[in-house]
Amino acid sequence: GGILYLSLLLGCFCSKNDDAPAVYIVTLKRHAASQFYDELTQRHDGSDDRISRFDKPRNLSRTTGGYQGSFVDRIHDSLLKKVLKGEEYLKLYSYRYLLDGFSVLVTPNQADKLSKSRAVSSIVVDFPVEAATTHTPQFLGLPQGAWAREGGFETAGEGVVIGFIDTGIDPKHPSFSDDSPYPVPDHFSGICEVTRDFPSGSCNGKLVGARHFAASAIIRGIFNATKDYASPFDADGHGTHTAAIAAGNHGIPVVVSGHHFGNASGMAPRSHIAVYKALYKSFGGFAADVVAAIDQ
Fold this sequence. Notes:
CATH architecture of the largest domain: 3-Layer(aba) Sandwich
Strand content: 15-25%
CATH topology of the largest domain: Rossmann fold
Radius of gyration: 21 Å
CATH class of the largest domain: Alpha Beta
Helix content: 10-25%
Strand order of the largest sheet: 1-8-12-9
Family: Belongs to the peptidase S8 family.
Number of strands: 14
Mean pLDDT: 82
Low-confidence stretches: 1-15, 43-69
Domain Inhibitor I9: 23-131
Keywords: Hydrolase, Protease, Serine protease, Signal
GO molecular function, one term: serine-type endopeptidase activity
Distance between the termini: 15 Å
Structural class: alpha+beta
């Protein structure tokens, strides 16, 4: 199975310039693929064309060379062209799994036009988000409770991939080493970005997926590549911390300034980790990027 570990607090965003373009998240009245996927597969007649438009290829953002020919993307592009009729705009993401919609850079007047479309369910201005921290296995009583009943920490989380929407991850952290290789679950599908900050080999049997989302931040001109890293690498430490809490290896020594503070363990140490970086050190994050991360 898959677990989504979402570590953020929502805020609000208010534009000071009523005429300035802004990023809007547009949700359509159509159901997202995740809501009717089971129905599609039940009616499947043996050919691929009923479900392949949602499965192959997976939705990718523009910042990572997104696939523009998908069925869902074409619907979104067609709606924008029809409603805005030759006007300038910039679509950042198409969302297909979490919701059927997209994020787009438009003026308030253009946003008003979109809101009046019969196909649109809602439209909201993109807003900033912040990180929030979680608790520990000891606080939850796992060593004496669930672990003991389910066979101990050696099997806790086996076969599960936990997805983290956070500030990324430091792949060199000992909590994510692959000393005892685990088989990656067959049902997991994802990619591992390779950049100068996140070189080949950063992913392993423990860290099975890693990518980043920053289109909304980049379009605002506030993304600082030297501080925030255009990669899954964690410049803040929060994402590494939460990933270690939830899924870090068992029995990892904690040493700070030469002092030993015992051994650490994740809540599900046998589980795998997939990172979807959408929060950043210097500015937090924006909902459009977070939704894109969740959609993946």
